[in-house]
Amino acid sequence: MRKILLLTLLLAACSTQSQDAIARGAARSTVTKIVVDRFPGAPVEPVLDCVIDNASATQIYALAADTIGGPTESSIQIVADVVQKPETITCLSTTGLAAVLSGAGA
Q1: How many secondary structure helices (H) and strands (E) does the chain include?
Q2: What is residue 70's predicted lDDT score, i.e. its pLDDT?
Q3: What is the pLDDT of residue 18?
Q4: Calpha distance 43→35 (Å, rounded)
Q5: What is the C-alpha separation between 32 and 64, in angstroms, rounded?
């Protein structure tokens, strides 16, 4: 809860575009750790791009909040949910990441 409050206070001082960029950057940090742990051997950048580009704003902010303390079970579930979205599956399949798709429920 404290992480979310801290993130909210930091973002409140920024423009909407800056808030989005900061949150997406922080979320990328959390997602990177999850991808490296859950999908060993997968190329991180393409997976990261597909997940971040297909996550909702709420999911982005939740992932960004977990940057401070590291990935939680909730952030792992968010990434798993995003990986299973049709848009993310399309993105991953066009970048040749079948290994990630086969482990999407992991």
Answers
A1: 7, 0
A2: 86
A3: 66
A4: 9
A5: 12
Number of residues written out for the chain: 106
Closest C-alpha among 9, 96, 85 to residue 52: 85
- Inter-CA distances, 72 with 2, 8, 60, 75, 78, Å: 14, 19, 14, 5, 10
Residue with tokens 């990986």: 83
CA distance 53 to 102: 20
Residue spans per domain, the chain: 2-102
Encoding tokens for residue 37? Answer: 């742990």
CA distance 8 to 21: 14
Q: Which amino acid is at 80?
A: A
36-89 residue pLDDT tens = 998 888 888 999 999 999 999 999 999 999 888 889 999 999 999 999 999 999
